[in-house]
Design a protein that fits this description.
This protein is of the alpha+beta class. The protein folds into two domains: 126 residues, Up-down Bundle (Four Helix Bundle (Hemerythrin (Met), subunit A)), CATH 1.20.120; 85 residues, SCP2 sterol-binding domain (Nonspecific Lipid-transfer Protein, Chain A), CATH 3.30.1050.10. The protein is 46% helix and 12% strand. The chain contains seven helices and seven strands, in the order H-H-H-E-E-H-H-E-E-E-E-H-E-H. The protein has a five-stranded mixed sheet. The longest helix is centred in the first third of the chain and has 21 residues. The mean pLDDT is 95.
Length: 243
């Protein structure tokens, strides 16, 4: 998948959504936010990542140059992912830079910002009551990226899965193959490990890749997907993870 092209495309789709929408529209899936705050979060986040890539080090998001949109919100939003892609090109995609998971290649930020955009575009669509369309391959990649983040970011809190408990996610879209199935397992240390594949779990969750992504990131109710087995496993997962 071309994550750079997808990032630009998701940004364009978000800009199209908010272009003529009232800036003070509430975003129910991001409590306390308006569309204006959502757009600023996405655009500033791209520029924050670009600054990290250029410097190689953590920077305070509040100190990022150009972090506020000004009057031309759409133009500013369109420019934001470009700043990141240019920074990665300038630094080199394989050069290690700061991330909240420790040093990673600069290109890591492209995929991270892409899926920040895919989910926040869903937030905007839900706020405006319009359909949210996303290609199954992109939605599946977003779910993989999110589960991988959770697996690496165990914070010592209540574990999302009990040790040894398996949650099986299964996308029903045609053509995804193994990329559309995930086995997530609780570990003894309170974290999770995962792999693509088919297998038996305490709970199996089935739905389109788009619905799985939105359900797992708590953008839509779990009733949008089919749950087989112990539904409490999914409930606990949702209670103890947040996007």
């Amino acid at each position: 998948m071309d994550h750079a092209a997808a990032l630009v495309d998701q940004n364009r789709l978000l800009a199209d959504l908010v272009r003529d929408a009232p800036a003070d529209t509430a975003v129910p899936t991001c409590p306390g936010w308006t569309l204006q705050q959502l757009v600023r979060h996405v655009g500033r986040g791209d520029r924050w990542a670009a600054t990290i890539v250029r410097t190689g080090a953590f920077v305070d998001p509040r100190e990022v140059a150009g972090g506020k949109p000004g009057d031309d919100v759409v133009g500013w939003l369109h420019e934001s992912p470009r700043t990141l892609l240019d920074a990665v090109d300038g630094t080199g995609p394989d050069v290690p830079v700061w991330t909240f998971l420790g040093p990673r290649p600069a290109a890591w930020w492209i995929r991270r910002r892409l899926h920040e955009s895919t989910v926040h575009r869903a937030d905007a669509a839900l706020a405006l009551g319009v359909p949210y369309d996303i290609e199954p391959e992109l939605a599946a990649d977003g779910l993989s990226e999110w589960i991988a983040l959770l697996a690496e970011r165990s914070d010592g809190g209540d574990p999302p899965l009990a040790a040894g408990t398996v949650l099986h996610l299964h996308a029903t879209d045609d053509g995804l193959g193994e990329a559309g199935e995930w086995l997530v397992r609780g570990t003894d240390g309170g974290g999770v490990e995962w792999e693509h594949g088919h297998g038996k779990g305490a709970a199996a969750v089935r739905g389109t890749a788009a619905d799985l992504l939105l359900a797992v990131t708590r953008r839509v109710p779990a009733s949008r997907v089919e749950v087989l087995g112990d539904a409490a496993v999914l409930d606990t997962w949702l209670e103890r993870t947040s996007f």
